[in-house]
Amino acid sequence: MKKHFPAIAADVVLVLIFCAIGRRSHDEGGAITGLLHTAWPFLGGLAVGWASALALYKDKFTADSIFPTGVVVWLSTLVIGMVLRVISGQGTAFSFIIVAGVVLAAFLVGWRAIYRQVEERRALR
Question: Structure pTM?
Answer without folding.
Answer: 0.93
